[in-house]
Amino acid sequence: MKQFRTTFIRAGLGALYFSGAHYLLRPIFAGAGAVFMLHHVRPPRADDFQPNRHLEVTPGFLRATLAHLKSRDIDIVTMDEVHHRLSNRKFERRFAAFTFDDGYRDNRDHALAVMREFAAPFTVFVASDFAEGTGRLWWVALERTIAKASRIEVTMGGHATRFDTTTTAGKQAAFDRVHDWLRGLQEHDLAREIGALCARHGVDMAAICRDLCMSWDELKGFADDPLVSIGAHTITHCNLAQQREDVAR
Question: How far apart are CA 79 and CA 97, in angstroms?
Fold first, then answer.
């Protein structure tokens, strides 16, 4: 279902573009500016099974996007400047801002060089547990678990559900179903279920975190670059909408 939805949206956007309708709609929908919310920036992988691919772009794609914005004479600004322009209704010039969620090491290793080419500021929103090296990147853990398994079993709603994951299509179907189920759980339930699944299949979630995310020491050096700002992205990367107000605060 998720793949179908993504394909449908892409087809719709493509139809708008090739029909030229976006030119007619621009005065209505263009707005004052846009925020590009990114995650990973890294070279493409060759794996057939990449269910989290929507969370990454290549350095070449990022470079092309920045070049396009510059060619349209759009200002690339900090989030502070976005706030200033919106608060003061300074809409004389269109703007774009770039953010990167979670604090992935590839933001430093691949995105930073591209952003420097265009003198483009950006903000990285860091989850504290990820920087500590103890965080649960459960969606990556789920991908790696299914990638290595030929069969998985999960108890959902009190019923054991078995998935044949010998094929790429089977792996994708299992990922979509289990991902949606996990995402709907309370944080402690999600932690228990993904922890049990990883334990059964020998996947180390802490190792995934340390492999993908910058540590505090790495972030300190990264933040020394004048283009880089660091923002807060919760402690555990929890779903704030599911928390009590006091816990969310």
Answer: 6
